[in-house]
Amino acid sequence: MRLTLLPLYAATVVAGSFALARAQAQPPKKPALPSFWQPVAASQAKRLGQPRLRPTAYRVFRLDLPGLQKVLATATEAQTGPWVLLPLPDGTLEAYQMRTTGIMAPELAARYPNLRTYAGQQTANPANGARLEITPTGVRAMLIRNGRTLFIEPYRPGDTRHYLCFDKANLPAGSKQGFEAGR
Questions:
Q1: pLDDT higher than threshold 50 for residue 10
Q2: Count of CB atoms situated within 10 Å of the CB of 75
Q3: Which residues contact 62 (CB under 8 A, 6 or more apart)?
Q4: Cβ neighbours of 119 (radius 10 Å)
Q5: What's the rounded Cα separation, in Å, for the pair 96 and 119?
Q6: Could you tell me the pTM of the whole model?
Q7: 78: which DSSP letter?
Q8: What per-residue confidence (pLDDT) applies to 31?
Q9: Got the DSSP string for 10-65?
């Protein structure tokens, strides 16, 4: 009887050891990223008045700009910057790992510290990228996602809390000339 239970006991110990080793080898789960973007219901968006741009389809989001700025303040030029959720026109949020980009000459950057630019990428799909700028007039972003060009723009001039998120393809005819000509 003792010889019959020994192989069963040994198999249980070995299987348990493999399961424990596999569980320990898994990276710890990342905590959920804070979302600085909150969707605005269509009925509430109507109360904001006419948007500055008029794409045929878009979503409106409310932004906690100080929260976003606080997280982005930790970004450097290294590829290992903070993760930030950015809104998409379908109402979802996607994570991008952000880094600073130095597009201004150092003297200008020192003279205008409130102008910041960033680049971001998704590690699971490196072709999906983001360019983001923060200025006193708000946030502007261009996302390349699955071959589509998406934009995040202030809802109206002077409003740094509300933003349109839309696909470039949804801009009315004639409004894309500046984008297409590279202006």
A1: no
A2: 20
A3: 37, 38, 39, 40, 161, 162, 163
A4: 19
A5: 9
A6: 0.76
A7: S
A8: 55
A9: HHHHHHHHHHHHHHHHSPPPPPPPP--EEE--HHHHHTT-S-SS--SS-EEEEE-H
Instruction: Determine phi and psi for 178, rounding to 5 degrees.
Output: -60, -35
* Alpha-carbon gap, residue 82 to 100, rounded angstroms: 10
pLDDT for 43-59, tens place per residue?
A: 999 999 999 999 999 99
Place of tokens 């510290």: 113
Match 């003279």 to its residue by tokens.
111
DSSP assignment of 86-136, as one string? EE-TTS-EEEEEEEE---S-HHHHHH-TT-EEEEEE-SS-TT-EEEEEEET
Residues 6+ apart with CB under 8 A from 101: 77, 117, 118, 119, 131
Strand, coil or helix: what is 172? coil
The three-class DSSP label of residue 173 is coil
CB count in 10 Å sphere of residue 135: 14
Task: Identify residue 177 by its one-letter amino acid code.
Answer: Q
